[in-house]
Write a structure and sequence with these properties.
5 strands, five-stranded mixed beta sheet, alpha+beta, 23% strand, 100 residues
Length: 100
């Protein structure tokens, strides 16, 4: 288990998404080579299908109201979901909430 954690990223989700992820706000996701944001999202969607549908559309693209940050940098200014990840990094998922 310690070896998997050493090859993992920390995924932080808002409380709204945590509700569909067994109330977990922070998860350790093991990395596979090549490690990308898309790969981490695929793994999470496999374990939490509702999460997958809330974060990406039916084409697999990020929904407009979902923002992802790797160590504080918006993935849109990096390589999008193709952004490579290294062990120990943090992937923060923020879901905008509209109201009125």
């Amino acid at each position: 288990m310690a070896e998997e954690e050493a090859r993992a990223v920390t995924v932080v989700v808002p409380s709204l998404l945590a509700k569909v992820m067994d109330d977990q706000r922070e998860l350790q996701v093991g990395l596979e080579d090549p490690a990308t944001v898309a790969g981490v999202l695929d793994r999470l969607a496999a374990d939490y299908p509702v999460f997958g549908r809330r974060v990406r559309n039916e084409l697999g693209d990020l929904r407009r109201y979902v923002n992802l940050y790797v160590d504080g940098e918006d993935i849109r200014v990096l390589d999008g979901t193709g952004t490579h990840l290294r062990p120990g990094q943090e992937l923060l998922i923020i879901q905008s909430v509209a109201g009125g």
